[in-house]
Specification:
One of its GO terms (biological process) is DNA recombination. Helices cover about 35% and strands about 20% of the residues. The chain is an alpha+beta fold and about 260 residues long.
Length: about 260
C-alpha cells in the first residue's frame, strides 16, 4: 500500500553500502522511520529528499504489519539551503532535531510539534536569532516532556511576591520567604522569568524581533538546561558540539582585542 506523508527529516543514518534509515517527523503520524534504499548513491532520486532537515512530501510503501516502510519517492518543498550554509544555524538545527527525536515516541501524531519544528527551521533559514529560537523550542519541549516550571507565582506557597529566584527542585519560582527551601535556587532578573513564562505560551508564528541582553540570554540558557539535566536523562551529541561552538564564538578575535 502506498501512503503519502508530509514530513521533515530529523535523522538520517547510513545503512549498509548504499541505503539510509531516515527518521521523519510527519504532520499526520508524528515520528516515523523509513528505509531509503540506494539513497547513498549520488544519482539516486532519494539522495536529496533523505538529507537532514529537508521538508517535503514522502511517498512510501507500507506493508500490512508494523515494519519499516520503504521510501519510494519524495518531493522537496523546502531544503533550507541557507540554514545548511551556516555552521551555527546547522548546529542549532541539529540540536533541535535531536531533542525532538529523543522526547517523542514513534507514531504519535502531534501536528502542533510539526508546525513548531517547521517554523523554527524556517526562521533559522531566514537568519533569525538562533539562540532565542533554541530557548523557545527547549521551553516547549519541557512541556512536552511533562515538565512545566511554575512561572506565575511561587511554586512553594503560591504567593505573588518578588523578587523571585528559580528553583529546579521546587519546580519554578521561589519568593523571598520560600527561598530557604532551596539553597541552590538560581538568581534571575525579572526579564528572565517573564521571558520564560512568555515562551511557554508564545505562538512561534507570531515571532517578531526580540532584543535580549547577553546576561538574560545566559540566565535563560542556565535555567532551561538545569531543568533538562535534572529531570531528563538525555545525552545529546548535538548539544556537546553546540556548546563547543558557542564557546568558540565567545572567544575574542584579533579585531576585538
Amino acid at each position: 500500500m502506498l501512503v503519502k506523508w508530509e514530513g521533515i527529516v530529523i535523522r538520517s543514518v547510513d545503512y549498509g553500502e548504499s541505503s539510509k534509515v531516515v527518521t521523519l517527523f510527519t504532520r499526520e503520524n508524528g515520528k516515523l522511520g523509513l528505509m531509503a534504499r540506494g539513497a547513498k548513491k549520488t544519482k539516486s532520486r532519494l539522495a536529496a529528499v533523505s538529507q537532514l532537515f529537508s521538508h517535503g512530501y514522502y511517498l512510501c510503501k507500507a506493508g500490512p504489519g508494523t515494519g519499516m516502510p520503504d521510501l519510494s519517492q519524495g518531493d522537496i518543498m523546502e531544503s533550507f539551503r541557507d540554514l545548511r550554509q551556516s555552521l551555527s544555524a546547522t548546529a542549532y538545527a541539529a540540536y533541535i532535531a535531536e531533542l525532538l527525536d529523543r522526547l517523542t515516541h514513534e507514531r504519535e501524531p502531534n501536528p502542533y510539534l510539526f508546525q513548531l519544528l517547521l517554523h523554527t527551521f524556517r526562521y533559522l533559514d531566514e537568519g533569525r536569532d538562533a539562540e532565542i529560537l533554541c530557548r523557545i523550542f527547549e521551553t516547549k519541549m519541557l512541556i512536552v516532556a511533562g515538565i512545566s516550571p511554575q512561572l506565575s507565582a511561587c511554586a512553594n506557597c503560591g504567593a505573588q511576591r518578588e523578587p523571585y529566584a528559580i528553583s529546579v527542585s521546587q519546580g519554578g519560582l521561589l519568593c523571598p520567604v520560600c527561598l530557604p527551601a532551596d539553597p541552590y535556587a538560581i538568581a534571575v532578573t525579572p526579564s528572565t522569568w517573564k521571558l520564560l513564562r512568555l515562551f511557554q505560551v508564545f505562538d512561534l508564528e507570531r515571532l517578531g524581533d526580540i532584543e535580549v541582553k547577553p546576561a538574560t540570554r545566559n540566565q535563560l540558557k542556565h535555567v532551561l538546561r538545569s531543568f533538562m539535566d535534572e529531570h531528563l536523562d538525555l545525552r545529546l551529541k548535538s548539544r556537546s558540539f553546540l556548546e563547543q561552538l558557542e564557546r568558540m564564538e565567545r572567544l575574542p578575535t584579533k579585531d576585538s582585542e
